[in-house]
Design goal:
The protein contains 13 helices and 17 strands. The strands form 4 sheets. An 8-stranded parallel barrel has the order 1-2-3-6-7-8-9-10, surrounded by 4 helices. A 4-stranded antiparallel sheet has the order 14-13-16-17, with no helix packed on it. A hairpin with a 2-residue loop joins strand 11 and strand 12. The chain folds into 2 domains: 362 residues, Glycosidases (TIM Barrel, Alpha-Beta Barrel); 84 residues, Immunoglobulin-like (Sandwich), CATH 2.60.40. The longest helix is centred in the middle third of the chain and has 23 residues.
Length: 497
């Protein structure tokens, strides 16, 4: 996914100036957990892999993250049990070979994320099949059954996005995941049509000649036809997801530059000078958002503030000002948070970047790349998040465009077995079923204010909370319910502990 991963130097991030004492109650705080290219798991036992994932999730929870974007289909393969595609080579070392003893990584991660009050977004790549010309596909791979659906480009193999059957296959894969797993979202990264290889053309002439005219495109409109192919896939996927489980979101994390100013006759592009989604990858992400094909956008704004070709501040403001629809999160490259601040080189750019995220009107949060760096506390990122920038828990912004009706709240709290307990909310309306319970704590004589994130002490699926407070009567607690789109219920009556 991320084309240029800069080696991260281990250095302490100096905390920048404070731009607000109260952290937002609602903010998306995701982390990408990738498995493509992983050479470690094939040497590990099932228990070792699971413990590695558990430690990673524990750190993400400790640092205030509320969503994990977990890679489950890196190369037309599966990091889960699938009848449609072979097991990924990145689990056992060989494509098509199931883990022994058997386990399902996606099922495991969904359960572990929800246990920690975090969401699981299933991250898939729609078109990539191999990363180099040395990789061996399993004999049962679709490539050997339908070779006409694929194209070689550079040293890699891809689906041909112009082949309708390629679209149908990807839709079936996603339908299968959505049907069988309790995921919260489907997520695509920046690989649509492949990144350009110098002096080489993506040879999709056959599918262009075969389908373009009947789809309304003339011979000079090949680029428009390519963009339509990708848009068709996005539309089909969103319709499929919503027809099965309407609360599941569909998100895209495109390359950070949509179009450069020089590429847009109407001057709508950003003041940047780099590869662009629209021209090179044939992905018109703003159009998908405006048409409601996607529910959130995470542009990968992976550069530093002051980058000569792709300035971070220019790009985050361009995406914010566009306000294209859905929610907007920023894809953050952790390594760039070590860059010196332009105004005060003795500090890093972290304070300014976080200030932009939290002061721009239409930016709703961050997704951290790579999530493994948080787990390893590289450049002390985990310390900075847990001690300052994500110190308190945060709810994901509500997806009111999908559902805006708050769920029923908890009626009665009681103290039993040294815990605060409540009856789980039951309803036949799947859109109003509890997703998580939110536990708020206040000093006994303080007013109840659920707008302040400092008062959130737990996000849980359990029907109880065990306080750690030792002095009886010092605090009072209230509980709310959030549904699958993060609408919040009325609060319960308080109970004292």
């Amino acid at each position: 996914m991320k084309r240029l991963l800069i080696t991260i130097t281990v250095i302490v991030i100096t905390l920048g100036s404070c731009f607000g004492q109260q952290l937002p109650k609602r903010e998306f705080r995701g982390a990408w957990i990738h498995i493509v290219g992983n050479q470690r798991m094939k040497t590990m036992t099932t228990d070792e892999i699971q413990q590695w994932f558990i430690r990673t999730l524990d750190t993400l929870q400790m640092t205030g993250c509320n969503a994990v974007i977990f890679q489950v289909r890196p190369q037309a393969d599966a990091f889960y049990q699938s009848e449609l595609e072979p097991w990924t080579r990145f689990l056992t070392g060989e494509q098509g070979v199931a883990p022994t003893p058997y386990w399902d990584p996606l099922e495991f991660m969904v359960k572990e994320c929800h246990k920690r009050g975090m969401e699981l977004h299933a991250w898939l790549n729609p078109y990539r099949v191999t990363s180099n010309d040395k990789e061996q596909l399993h004999p049962d791979h679709l490539y050997f059954k339908k070779p006409e659906l694929f194209k070689r480009y550079g040293k890699q193999l891809y689906f041909d996005p112009g082949e309708p059957e390629a679209i149908e296959h990807t839709v079936r894969v996603i339908s299968d995941i959505v049907t069988r797993y309790d995921i919260d979202a489907v997520h695509f990264d920046d690989y649509f049509y492949p990144y350009p290889v110098k002096y080489e053309e993506f040879h999709d002439d056959a599918s262009f000649v075969k389908y373009a005219r009947q789809q309304g495109f003339e011979y000079w409109q090949k680029n428009d036809w390519r963009r339509n192919n990708v848009a068709t896939l996005m539309h089909r996927i969103n319709d499929t997801i919503k027809s099965i489980k309407p609360w599941i979101r569909f998100g895209i994390s495109p390359f950070g530059i949509h179009r450069n100013l020089s590429e847009t006759p109407d001057s709508s592009g950003s003041r940047t000078n780099g590869l662009s989604n629209y021209e090179a990858l044939f992905a018109d992400v703003p159009d998908w958002a405006q048409k409601g094909y996607i529910d959130y956008i995470v542009p990968q704004i992976y550069w530093k503030i002051g980058h000569p070709a792709a300035d971070y501040e220019t790009l985050i403001k361009w995406w914010n000002d566009g306000n294209f629809g859905g929610q907007l999160y920023v894809g953050q490259n952790i390594s760039t948070f070590n860059e010196p601040d332009l105004q005060n080189p003795k500090t890093t750019q972290m304070a300014r970047k976080m200030e932009l995220v939290r002061t721009l009107e239409h930016v709703d949060g961050n997704v951290w790349w790579p999530g493994w760096s948080i787990a390893a506390n590289q450049i002390s990122i985990a310390d900075s998040l847990s001690s300052k920038y994500q110190k308190y828990l945060s709810l994901i912004p509500a997806y009111t465009s999908i559902d805006s009706i708050p769920p029923m709240g908890v009626e009665t709290l009681k103290i039993k077995k040294k815990s605060i307990r409540w009856d789980k909310v039951e309803t036949d309306d799947v859109m109003q079923q509890p997703h998580f319970y939110i536990v708020y704590r206040f000093h006994a004589n303080a007013p109840i204010d659920i707008t302040d994130s400092r008062n959130i002490v737990k996000i849980t699926r359990d029907d109880y909370y065990k306080p750690t407070d030792k002095r009886a009567g010092k605090y009072k607690y209230v509980i709310t319910v959030v549904d699958k789109c993060w609408n919040e219920s009325e609060l319960s009556a308080p109970i004292f502990w």
